[in-house]
Request: fold
Amino acid sequence: MPTTLPSADVHLASAAKQSNISRGFWAEAWRQFRQRRLAMAALCYVGFLVLVALLAPAIAGTKPVVCRYKGKLYFPALAYFNPAWENPIFFKDRFRKLYPENLKKKDPKSWAIWPLLYQDPYRRIRTGEWEGQPENPSGDKGRPNRFNLFGTNQEGIDVFAQMVHGTTIALLVGFVSMGLAGAIGIALGALGGYLGGWADMLLSRITEVVMCVPTLVLILALIALVDKPTIWHMMAIIGCTGWTSIARLARAEFLKLRESDFVIAARALGVGWPRIVFRHVLPNALAPVLVPITFGIASAILIESGLSFLGFGAPPPNPSWGTLLNSGRQNMNLWWLIFFPGLAIFLAVLAYNLIGEGLQEATDPRLRDAGR
Amino acid sequence: MLNYVIRRLMIGAFTLLLITFVIFGLIRNMPGSPITLAMGEDPSRKISAADLERLRKSYGLDKPWPQAYVGWVGQLLQGDLGRSISRKQPVTKLIQERVGPTLLLSLTSILLAYILSTPLGLYATVRSGHLDERITSVLLYMLYSLPSFVGALFLLIVFYQNLEWLPLRGMTGDDYESLSALGKVLDIGRHAILPITCYTYISLAYDARFIRANMAEVVRQDYVRTARAKGVGPMRVLVVHAFRNTLIPFVTQIGLTLPALLSGSVILEQIFSWPGMGRLFFESIAERDYATIMGLTLMFSVLTLAGQLLADLLYALVDPRISYS
Reply:
């Protein structure tokens, strides 16, 4: 009978949970999750990363968070999220991205709240830009110092600023690509598992094809097809190739739940299959599917940084952690270009793995009872 | 059983056809072709449109890709993987050249990982819940989460940059040809230490956790308690009664490592400039070397499918409760 892998069957077994899930399932899972200190620490770390990503322009930047200029309030730092949000008045008044001296010069009465660190992820800080701060060292001399916490790269751009702004990419890659992968995986797995028959056969073959194709070929070929790949293309491509394990688990879960009493009851009431699949079965199949999604976030971050590391990432100005790592590889003397981004990638992957494991233990009664 | 195998093989053949078709279509639609890429760097080698057309024709690139695909399958059925355009060599020969270095890394590291992970997993089972076990487990988990390319770069900084003990890249040193036989072996060994370490540490962490998880399940079984109750020594209970029974999932694991054995790791081989399969793959994609990409894809897919089938068959072989009839 088993046409699936043994590993899938093992998963199926480990994912097996009592079919009579009470209403407090998620509350119970959360209670269990909270008891796992490492998983909670990891969750806090991801929360911290989200904060860093959201506050990146206020942590390191050269544009004021808030400033009052010619009688009006502006938020120039938002331009780091989207260049189009930079108020045109600063172009008109020829600020040329040098806010400190121009604000003073062009409007003596202006005031501004500055980011914690005056450093830019895209350019080198020159002498006299910021009072009491020397020019960023370039070449091999950019060791970590008081002004450049994580050193500078060969062009003199601050590594700390690049990493803080790169956090957004790392987080987005995880969430967006796995959101996409989760949607595809759950939909295909649900349809295959619930409908069975030729639909299942077809969908299983498709899953198998995507699984067997070396991920890198698929991703590199798809990236080559896009004219100017951006980080969003990368996320879409990682999402479109990373859904197979989710689909297999969802399929296994649906195969099992299809025969359960509440589905038969719903069918007896004359509920149509789309409604049964998405309203009745899906909520019950979600817990085991969430686990591979969490692990998938870790591997998406890994793939993105790996691709950037190989030089196939989004275009250069983007401060992705993998791109930094790649620049460090060119010159091993600059150990800080490898150490700090490498540590950041490692910690992010570790955090998601820990959360995934905590989730697995918290939602799987078999493992839960086995624990201490 | 035979029925099952035949059905699996037929489904596998169909899947293979689908995979190669998709990949063939994808790579033929990537911008650039082996001919234009080879000329791109050098303006003096620019040729006229008519010559280009003739070249395309001689390499069979003028046909639409579905037709070319049928041609490729036809050649394949005669046992011919085609010739690499950019390297002017048969694909089978290219693969033969690269298989050795990759096997050197993957075989060594898989063996090392098994040898090291078994005692680690058993140790973790015995000391379960103690402080030392917790620390080892956390360390192993961290190792498992450390991306291989980050690990590789960290190792390079320490052993190449700071200590200057080990070479940066390649499989052989510059003076390789002048060395004696023993010297050659030592030279390759010196170059292989870091790549093997990187390959090993991730599988080591994975295997040790795998063994520990399986053992945790088995030591709670009644027969283990019975063995203890009748006075079998703790070591014997652990190894003969418990560990032997965890070998079932372990055996299927072997089938699933089959593709990893030959595929190599693109990123690691790229970092260490190791002349293996992963690097060949990467280079062939960059060169739009259609025949090589197809040959490698076919090989990996066959290995993946064969590994899955093997895992299922081994599963039935070692566990009499499972049958496929």
